[in-house]
Specification:
The protein is mainly alpha-helical. The protein is built from 26 helices and six strands. It has a domain of 126 residues. The chain has a six-stranded mixed beta sheet, with helices on one face. The relative contact order is 0.05.
């Protein structure tokens, strides 16, 4: 790192008397033309060095030189700041340019997407349209990705409509992005339609479809798409196998998972990476083959990452294996709230209250706060958020009144609270009350109040949906004749007529 630092300052020292103590801020118009090709190349080298060594002070110092050059260098500056996560500074550079071209807008929109600021990227895109700047295929590739990550169906349809209106040529990059977008927005059938009409010579289009099917738990469909790849002479890559193994994991297809894991190496000479091992460990552990999953971890050729250990830890909770749970916890270098909660729940499920309390005490001592479950529902363009036992919504009284009536009605149809899921040493009545007001129940109830009978409802949750809510929503879908889609942290659940697409395995 020190070598990189010297490299940066060496490059800067060759420029026209750069002042390293500059307090220049990013508000000077970047409007003068490029002076020479050599200067352009030199500044490119400087910016590349700033990427390698994300020193904000050094990067800002470059600005004094940048203002003497044109938009090409400004765009490079935006990209460099986005690369090191300095999105606010990148936006300041963007705002300082008096007349932005499409590349400048694309650099900013794409940078926001790469930094996970999906809503901001869509806001910039809307501003671009207001300025009458025509977006191109690169613009739409970024915006479609943002819609996919947000799961914002209304925005997704709007953006896709704009692409059609502006006659944007749909290449394999955009085809992949569109398939991914509709899959993540809960419209897998639309994703299939786009896939079936797309040019499918590039493997990325196939990967988007297979991963989308995996997200919806449609393993048989994913396997079918994989077999069609062979017929159409498209060679799978490592991403393809991540998708197919994930699909097998979501459906408990153990033998199929083993088959594709071996096929990947034997027929396609693709060596397993962390993602492939992670999918296999998840597949085996979730199916109850925890010892086999642990054996695979020990046989890995590389160091297991935190995702793999958490997959094992999660299965240890489901299958009540505190010994291996403790092994997994010790291998996770930076424990988060979910790790503590999983281990505590393992002990609580076995009624080892003292051990569970010790874990919670350690969590409190280390200043780790439990991650709250949140559920979102979009109604008439407004996103409503709920937490468990939330009473901050302005229509709380109506929500709780309707929810209590719904719970009573579903009990008449056979719903029974899964009180054993509440890992606290409290009474049965308190456990039932705890379950009744989970965030997804509140979100669903509000959507029922605010929508017309028969309207499909879609909910997003930041954690895995709990088995009690899952059981309850199946009955609600039957009682109210509603289609309910829940996108949780792992996959989609589509409830209809008392059944879920996951087959009660997730």
């Amino acid at each position: 790192m020190a070598t990189v630092r010297r490299r940066v300052f060496s490059l800067l020292s060759r420029t026209q008397n750069f002042n390293f103590n500059t307090k220049s801020h990013l508000t000077v118009p970047l409007s003068q033309p490029i002076n020479s090709k050599s200067d352009d190349q030199m500044l490119f080298r400087i910016l590349e060095s700033c990427k390698l060594f994300p020193n904000l002070r050094t990067a800002v110092a470059v600005h004094n030189k940048i203002i003497k050059h044109g938009y090409v260098i400004a765009n490079m500056m935006i990209t460099s700041f986005m690369e090191i996560g300095e999105t606010d500074i990148a936006k300041n550079v963007f705002s300082a340019i008096p007349a932005r071209d499409v590349i400048t807008w694309n650099s900013t929109i794409g940078g926001y997407v790469k930094n996970g600021l999906f809503k901001d990227s869509i806001d910039i895109f809307k501003e671009m349209l207001r300025k009458n700047i025509e977006p191109d295929g690169f613009t739409f590739a970024s915006v479609v990705t943002a819609c996919a990550r947000l799961g914002a169906l209304r925005h997704a349809k709007w953006v896709h409509g704009l692409m059609i209106e502006k006659r944007i040529e749909v290449n394999y990059i955009l085809s992949s992005a569109l398939v991914d977008m509709y899959s993540r927005c809960g419209r897998i059938e639309t994703a299939k339609e786009i896939f079936n009409t797309a040019q499918r010579t590039d493997v990325s289009v196939w990967n988007a479809m297979i991963n989308g099917l995996a997200l919806h738990g449609l393993a048989l469909d994913a396997i079918l798409v994989f077999s069609i790849m062979k017929v159409e002479n498209v060679s799978p890559d490592s991403v393809t196998f991540v998708g197919i193994l994930t699909a097998c994991s979501h459906c408990g297809f153990i033998e199929e998972g083993r088959k594709y894991f071996n096929l990947m190496q034997r027929e396609h000479s693709i060596q397993p990476q962390l993602e492939h091992y992670g999918a296999m460990v998840d597949l085996l552990a979730r199916a109850g083959l925890i010892e086999e999953a642990y054996a695979m971890i020990k046989e890995m050729r590389m160091e297991p990452d935190v995702v793999i250990w958490r997959a094992l830890l999660s299965a240890c909770r489901t299958h009540k294996n505190p010994e291996l749970g403790e092994v997994a916890i010790k291998r996770i270098k930076h424990l988060e709230s979910g790790d503590y909660v999983l281990l505590s729940n393992i002990y609580s499920s076995m009624k080892k209250w003292d051990s569970a309390e010790t874990v919670r005490y350690t969590m409190k001592k280390n200043g780790v706060r439990k991650c709250s479950g949140k559920s979102l529902v979009e109604l008439r363009g407004v996103i409503h958020q709920f937490k468990a036992a939330d009473r901050y919504h302005p229509e709380t009284e109506a929500i709780y009144r309707v929810l209590d009536a719904l719970i009573h009605r579903t009990r008449m149809q056979g719903y029974v609270s899964m009180s054993d899921l509440v890992f606290m040493d409290i009474s049965e009545e308190e456990k039932e009350e705890n379950l009744n007001y989970h965030s997804e129940k509140l979100a669903l109830t509000y959507a029922i109040i605010k929508s017309s009978p028969g309207t499909e409802i879609q909910i997003s949750k930041n954690l895995r949906t709990c088995p009690d809510c899952h059981s309850w929503m199946k009955i609600v879908s039957q009682v109210l004749n509603r289609v309910i889609t829940v996108r949780d942290r792992i996959r989609f659940h589509r409830f209809e007529s008392g059944f879920c697409t996951c087959g009660d395995y997730w």
